[in-house]
Every structure is written in structure tokens, then in C-alpha cells.
């Protein structure tokens, strides 16, 4: 009898990938999702007979073994093996069409397929199959019912990350590029590097936690090195990235951390990795996010007697914005009721279980105050719920004394934002993280959280403050509402003219009093430039006034900063800076004190993109980027960065200096290689301006 041999295996790539929503991956091998059937066509040396034995063997890892579950031996029509099964679809002469269904909780990763017939083993050329999580499969823990949501959170390879400040939120377009060349391989490399066991690879909670650790370079030479120093000469400034593709490709090629990232870059890359592996994921921006190192739900801000914020005194900080990710999954490791979105964060802020990793933390646990649930719920809870306490530092008999000049209980964790499903707009998801301020549910959630957190009493705490006796009582009760002042004192900070670099910064502090009577108010105000992490870079100016108000009334006090006071700093720092205005008001007659701060961003002229609205596959079209410098200053060392996934590779135009009034036009020839809605992203960087960005869509038919 001639022994049965396999002469070829066809992975039927185009039909399988269409059905598995994996046809976007730019890779030779077959990519499929778990828990869903795919077909392979096996060609044999002769017709299959009843007595013949045909086995498909799927192996994962270096040395696959049956008893470890890393080698699956599947015979058609036999009982399933670890939840996998194979069935014969049809037999035509020497051809067999087989259908393979993997288990909906199979370990994700790279499998090798060998076909065994009797004692012969056939190893197909390129016999690697990539198996991913499957949000389309009801039995997979990442199952997502809504199609539009899957389209956004799994398949959309472009998006928007919201940055700026609560006063002026703006969008930064970002190319996730999870389907680009080498990105899936980079993710598989990270999975191998994570040393997760096979059992852990089944569970998106373990996988997302491991990825949150590996996207930062701390303690495991992961993808990105964080740097907030302002000095990026030995790498790429965090402001210069416009997507994850170059970062992950470079990391995969060199296997060394890429320099440098800040929070939105970490979040952009982690979003790419999770979507690439098949876990629905979104970038989430929180404005005025607390970094509370001591988990006492309090962040102290120290001001000097001019009302200027001091950097050196506190280890805690409030970031103007912080970006992390939400990944979607059913949690099988904790009690019911906490499935759905889980916060994960790859920005290295605090160690968790000895590594820089954060999450997955159920968003519902943050809302309900169940901060004991894994992982890192206390840290995430504090990021969106801490109180901000202001202290004025004054010298009394040569010693620093601390005077409390304000407590804000509703200032942290504002405008929590993500990109809308299927639309280019911001959607506010604060209510998923928090109950409405002042509601009964919020009070109960807060008391629940406090019972696990035991915050310390109200005492200034910093390197210096620990040696100083604090002023006032040391154990304030739990403050649930903003302190109401006797006079109804209220302070607002606004800009009265657009904040264009090169122009004077014109702002105003409005003091309001609602109680009738004559009141004297001492006001100090300061203007500083700060990084988004809250780190002050320059003091620009202060005002000190005493005003009298006949209540109820208000008065506007102007605060104006000349261009010379800030342009030098603006040109010399590598990061984008925000304008921080702080005001401390005190009513003399009643001792009412109130501190208010607002961060604002500079406003820039736009980049416009000129190109057709539609184009056809493989037919070139032209795209022009036009920028007019409408500012009163020359923009030095301008660079235009452009990228269009499926249209053209990342390109940089060196534009030199752009004088006021000058118009620049850069053109690129585009060759679309993929169908559907594609986006082009452009970003202009100069010494004075760290990021004017825009995006434009084109439909490829």
C-alpha cells in the first residue's frame, strides 16, 4: 500500500481573513480569531480511505508538548481537545477541505501547523497561524455586542487623543496602525517577552496587565523610555511622534527601548498593541489628574507669597491631563458586576507588585468606590477623586510657616474624554468613572472608598513640611462639598484676547461677592508657564491688589504679560507649555480665603490639507499641506511631519524658518494600497510651537 502523504496545505487566506475581520493585517501568514471556524485545504498523494489516519497538530511556543497543553493533536470528527475541534467539510478526489474551530479561551499567540498522516509529518512552508482574541465571538471574554463599537475599538487604525487643559481641550490626531507591517510581530514578541504562562495567555486581564508593563522601558527594557526632563537630544522628542507605527517597528527591529515617550505616546502605543491582539481598547484623557503618591486622596499645592506655585515642595502633582487606556473584557477573576471597561496605564508613574504596570482596574469599581479590587484601583481612584489643597508658604521669624488658603474637592478628574464611536468628536465619559458631584451615590461611593483608603488628616506634607508644625486643626472631617464662604466669594480666570505666541497675553481675574455689604478683598495673582505634568518652567509676572466691592457685585482685574517675558522660554523648551494663572483672594473682614487656578494653551494658526475627497486603489493623487504664519514672530527650524496609513509612509519636510505672513506649501504624491476611509495626519513643529496638527480623510474605492 502506498502510504498517505500530504503534498500541500492551502490556508485559504483571503476567505478566512475576511470572515475573521483580519484581512487588514499586512503579513504573509494566516491571522484568525479564537472560537471561530476557519478552513484549510489539504492536498494528498492519493484519495483518503476509511483506514487512513489524518491529524492536524497545532503547537505553540519553543517546545510544544501535549501534557503542557502547548501541543494540540486534532483528528477530524473526533471529540474536541482542549475545546478545539476539526471537521471534514468536503472530500474531492485527493483534496480535503477541513474546518478548524479553536477554543474561545485558547491561549493567544503564534501556532505552528503540522499535518500528520500515519508516520509522515508534513510541515507547510509558512505554516504559522496567528491566533487573536475575538470580540465577535459570544463565548470569548472580550465579546462586544455592538458592531459600530467593534469597528471603532478593534478595527479603527487611526484616532484622536485629547490633550491640553480642562479650560482648553484640543485633539491630537494619532495613527494607531495596528495592521501595519511588523506591528503584529512586535506584539507577539512582547507576549513572548512577558513570560506569561499559557494559562495566563488565555485571559485578557493578564495580557493587558503585562502589556501595560512592557510598553514602558522601566524594569523590562520594554518599548518606550519615558522622559519629562525637557532634554531629548539623544532621541525623539515626545511631541514629534504622530503615531505608534514607527515606534513599534523600530523597537521590533532593534529590541531596544525607543526614546522618548510621555503619557499620550504610552497610551497611543498601548492602544495599538491591545487592538492588534484583538482586545477592544480606547484612549482615555482625564483633565486635572492627580498623581497621589501616598494614596491619601490629597494633593498639596504650595504657593509663595506672590501666589506663584512652587515646584520643589511636593512629591504629589496634578497633571493638566493624563492619558491612559480602557480595555473591554469580562473579568473572571473578581466578583460579578465589574466587567466591561477596565483602566490600564503604561505610563510609568508608580510601581505595582514591584513593576511599573497599572490595571486592569474595573471602571465600575472606581465609580462605586470598591478600591480593594485588583488591580491598582486605589491609584486610579485617587487620579480622578483626590482633593487639591493650597498652602501659602510665608517666612515667620525666619522659618517657613504654612497657611491653608483653599481646598478644592471637585477640581480633580474633570472632562474624562475619549473619541466618539464612528465620529471625529470628543465624548465625555466622566459619568462612567464618577457619580455626579454632590449626589447621594457619590457620597456613598466616597465613604466606601475612604473606608479602604484611610486618608491622613489635613497637614501639609512634603520634604520640608514634615518638620514644621502645621497651622490649624490637623484632622479635618471628610469634606464632601466645596467650602461655602460667608461672603459667597468666587473667583474666575479667563483670557480676554486670543493667546497667540508673540502677542501680549491678556487675561483677567474676576472677583465676585454675593453677600450684601462693603467688603475689602486682597488679591494676589501670578502667571507662569508649566509643563502638562504641573512642573513650572518660568514665572512671567504677578499682580497684587486690594479692591473694595459693594456686594453683591463683581470686579475684573486685568493681568497682562508682554511677549518679551515669555518668548525666550517658549523657544528654549522642547515641550509644549501651558499658561498657568493662579489667584488667591482673601476677604479682610471675614477671613474668607479662596484659591483658583486655570491652565490655558496657546492658540495657533491652522494647517490646511488640499486633496481629493475620493481616490481609487493604486492610482496616484496629489496632496498639499498649506500653512500661513499668521503670528507676529518668526517660527524657527520648522518641520512638517506627515503620515497616511495605506497611502504613504511617514515623511518629514524640513521647512527652515517661516517669517510672519509667509505661506508654505508642501506636496506629496499618494498611492493608496487599501480600500475604505483612510486618514492623512500632518503636524508642524518649530522652536516656538511644539505641535499644530490636523487630519483629513480620503475615501479609497
UniProtKB/TrEMBL annotation:
Q: How is the cofactor bound?
A: Binds 1 Ca(2+) ion per subunit.
For this protein, what is the EC number?
2.3.2.13
Pfam entry (one)? Transglut_N
Active site at which residues? 263, 322, 345
Which major enzyme category is it? transferase
- Where do the Transglutaminase-like domain residues begin and end? 255-348
Q: What is the name attached to this protein's record?
A: protein-glutamine gamma-glutamyltransferase
Cofactor(s) demanded: Ca(2+)
Does the keyword field hold RNA-binding?
Answer: no
Question: Is Glycoprotein among this UniProt entry's keywords?
Answer: no
Q: Which domain of life is it from?
A: Eukaryota
Lineage of producing organism: Eukaryota, Metazoa, Chordata, Craniata, Vertebrata
Please name the GO terms that the record assigns under molecular function.
metal ion binding; protein-glutamine gamma-glutamyltransferase activity
Q: Which InterPro entries match?
A: Ig-like_fold, Ig_E-set, Papain-like_cys_pep_sf, Transglutaminase, Transglutaminase-like, Transglutaminase-like_sf, Transglutaminase_animal, Transglutaminase_AS
Membership in a protein family: Belongs to the transglutaminase superfamily. Transglutaminase family.
The alphabetized UniProt keywords are: Acyltransferase, Calcium, Metal-binding, Transferase
Protein residues bound to Ca(2+): 385, 387, 437, 442
